[in-house]
Amino acid sequence: MAALAFSPDDRWIAIGTDRDLLFHDRATGAWGPAIAGDHPRNRFLGPMRFTADGRRVIALGDVLQVSVFDVATGERLGRAEPKSDDINGVFKVSQDGRRIVIYKFGSDTFEVLDGANARHLGWVCPNFCNAKHNPFEAPYAVSPDGTLVAISHPRGGTGVWDTASDKLRFALHDPQRKPFPWPYK
Which parts of the chain are beta strand (E)? Predict the structure, then answer.
């Protein structure tokens, strides 16, 4: 079993296994760098995505560890590891690879990471989504350029946030239903 991702230009295929992250250059038929897992959380069987320029790949390892690698050299450009009690969730990357948004089930939070190096940038939706703690897998989508995230949450409704400032841009209301009270309590 392996995780797979194509680069936007279809030149590279990233292949994640339980031991290594491998790159195959389809244009030349040659294998690129092999990145060996150096940590129990490095199993490369989770989702991964190339950045829009195809130079980096963002990979989700075991227990929500996020790593960013340079495709040409195999160098790790950054790694984000969750706290030990917050290791389950969902990972999404903007189409251009600039932003990573992780929904963490345990803390019921959305964390924003930099797609260049997996550095923590902030949080979105903490008051809107986390009004009463009861973890629930909330559907969400990251805009193609990573500047916005739309989140639908059963306790807080649906809204769109700015990933740089955690500002609610606007709430989305079903015209057939009464809007949620704001602020939600």
Answer: 3-6, 12-16, 20-25, 31-36, 48-50, 56-60, 66-70, 76-80, 89-93, 99-104, 109-114, 120-124, 140-142, 148-153, 157-162, 168-172
3-state secondary structure of 93: strand
CB 94 within 8 A of CB 82: no
The SS3 call for residue 2 is coil
Q: What's the chain's length in residues?
A: 185
In sequence order, the β-bridge partners of residue 141 are 150
Give 115-148 pLDDT, tens digit per residue.
999 999 988 876 556 555 555 677 888 999 999 9
1-81 CATH pick, 3.40.50.970, 3.40.50.300, 2.40.10.480, 3.40.50.1950: 2.40.10.480
Rounded to an integer, what distance in angstroms lies between the CA atom of residue 9 and that of residue 95? 13
**pLDDT tens for each residue of 14-54:** 999 888 899 999 999 999 999 988 766 557 778 899 999 99
19-50 residues labelled b (16+ CB within 10 A) or e (exposed): ebbbbeeeeeeeebeebebeeebbbbebebbb
Q: Which of 39, 38, 91 is nearest to 64 (CA)?
A: 91
